[in-house]
Amino acid sequence: MIPHRHPPEDLLLSYAAGGLPEPVALLVATHLALCPPCRAQSDDFVTLGGVILEGIAGDPVSPQCLERTLARLDAEDESPADPPSPPVSPPASLPQPLARYLPGPPPSLPWRRIGDRIAEIRLLRRCPGFTTRLVRVKEGTRIVRHSHDGLELTLVLAGGYSCASEPFRAGDFAVADETVTHRPVVDTDEPCLCLVVDTGPIRLVGPGRLLNPLLRLAYALF
Amino acid sequence: MAADPSSGAGTDPSWSDLLAAVAEKRDRDAFSRLFLHFGPRVKSYLRRQGMGNAEAEELMQEVMLTVWRRAGQFDSAKASASTWIFTIARNRRVDALRRERVPQIDPNDPLLVPQSGPSADERIDAAERSRRLAAAMTELPADQADLVRRSYFEDKSHSAIAAELRLPLGTVKSRLRLAVRRLRALIGGKP
Fold it and tell me: Which of A38, A67, A173, B81 is the most buried (most CB within 10 A)?
């Protein structure tokens, strides 16, 4: 099934150009695995990268540069070949770009439970300014109404949720900024699994703001 | 849209042949020709991201050594030579400047959702796609083409990207989006 909600075109272009920070690039790449039309578009943008490289005026290169490089070819051929890319994480239940960032398939992961309805795993902690989480929310859960100080990007991997009666299902890519106040409901009959990247803190709206900090964190998920 | 032959300079199939010669015969002469053509361009690409002369030249050599090492993985049906070398340069650049990887799909991933039926993109070969894109870039209004081109050269800090991601519509992003849609329409993709 083809997803219905896609990353904006400028994000696909930035991804192909290598201009996205790793957490956002991971989100886009995982969407590409699930979305053939966006994959075709992204391929075009990579092709365009080649066209642009071909079209730029070259920078002068020092005269010995070619010789020095040629001299390194022998060593290059003697050095061990590139390690083969790691095998597909078995048994793959998540698409490849994401699976490579996880120590195993979802059931075996070190989930951090928050209450009895939500569990999460933090990824890519080394990337400053971005909070990247794999989040699992039990079916039927209603998230407290909230908005965001930054941008929040969500990719649904399994199950789904609805926001203001708009459904988001596997493969769908959602963008929420500070103008969006929402109260998502997991309305599928299986848990909702999402990859979520935040660039700023979450603001709770209404009674939720009185929650304790741990629960705040729990609700800072969508 | 008929391809404009004058704009197809970037997709000379001989670069693919040279890569094949490197892969199959470890042909140093072919490698030298690839180096003389792509080396200065890769260096220029790296310098435009703010790298110094020596650093850019060193990394360019690394890129060309990777071309030598991986020439066997090049598939001319899937990408033109310049596109393939671009992705190597791009990945090395992201690694060097940000110590990050570019997460990518795995074409052999069983979970990859397949294309249903051949897409418009699959019916034309890689070289033809490059030609169409090169032609489309010349048909874009100059400011839009410039905006697109610049997005391939800018390496911004995380905080700059985060700040930009937060910008509302009506700014650079929406102008870029417009340019991209126009480009897609010009190459016959869906707008």
Answer: B81
Cα–Cα distance, A8 to B169 (Å, whole number): 11
Cβ-based contacts of A51 with chain B (< 8 Å): 10-11, 82-83, 130, 133-134, 137
Task: Report CB contact under 8 Å: B152, A178.
Answer: no
With H, G, I as helix, E, B as strand and everything else as coil, classify residue A173: strand
Neighbouring C-beta atoms of residue A124, cutoff 10 Å: 17
The first and second tokens of residue B99, run together, are 């110590």
Cβ atoms of A127 and A151 within 8 Å: the answer is: no
A13–B176 CB contact, under 8 Å: yes
pLDDT in tens, A23-76: 999 999 999 999 999 999 999 999 999 999 999 999 999 989 999 999 999 887
Could you say which residues of chain B have pLDDT below 70? Answer: 1-13, 117-123, 155-172, 189-191
Closest to A31 (Cα-Cα) out of A191, A173, A166, A176: A173
Q: Mutate which of B151, B174, B177 to disrupt the A interface (most A C-beta within 10 Å)?
A: B151
Cβ count near B37 (within 10 Å) = 19
pTM of the full predicted structure?
0.87
Quick check: A53 and B42 CB within 8 A? yes
Mean pLDDT, chain B, rounded, equals 83
Which ranges constitute the DSSP H helices of A56-178?
65-78, 96-99
Each as own residue / partner, the long-range contacts of residues A205-210 (CB below 8 Å, 24 or more positions apart, any chain) are A205/A145, A205/A146, A205/A147, A205/A181, A206/A144, A206/A145, A207/A144, A208/A144, A208/A145, A208/A146
Query: How far is the C-alpha of B191 from the C-alpha of B180, rounded, in Å?
Result: 9
Nearest CB to B113: which of A19, A36, A150? A36
- Is residue A153 a contact partner of residue A24, using CB atoms and an 8 Å limit? yes
Three-state secondary-structure class, residue B89: helix
Q: Distance, in angstroms, between A95 CA and closest chain B CA?
A: 5
Kindly determine whether residue B113 and residue A33, on different chains, have CB atoms separated by under 8 Å: yes
Pair B102, B91: CB distance under 8 Å? yes
